[in-house]
Design a protein that fits this description.
There is one protein chain. Helix 1 (2-21) packs antiparallel against helix 2. It contains 4 helices and no strands. Helix content is 71%, strand content 0%. With 107 residues, it is mainly α. The N and C termini lie far apart (37 Å).
Length: 107
Amino acid sequence: LAFGEDPLFRGFIQREVHGMTGSLTAAILTQSALFALLHSDHVTSLGVGLYFGIETSQLKGDLGPMMAAHFWINVLIGLTSYWTLKRSVGHDVPFNPPIGTELAIPF
C-alpha cells in the first residue's frame, strides 16, 4: 500500500494543505492524522506519518525514499505477523511465506 498511501497523504494532502494554509506544521499534522485513522495502530501510525511527512518536506517533496521505507516496513510487519500467527497455532515456521513465485521456461 505504500505506493498508494504516500502519494495520497504526503504527495497530495500534505502539499495541498500546505498550499492552502501556508503552514507546513498544519499540513504535516493533517496528513499524519488522516494516515493514522486508516491504520489499526493509530498511535504508531501517527508517529510514522509525522516522520514521513517531515522527511518528505526535507526532501523537497521527493516521495521515493519514504515510499521505499514504507514498503519495507510493510514487508517486515507482514513477515512478522505471518511468523507470529503460525507459531500461535502451534506450527513450525519454515521460511515459506504465503506469497510465492514460480519460474517456468517453455521449450
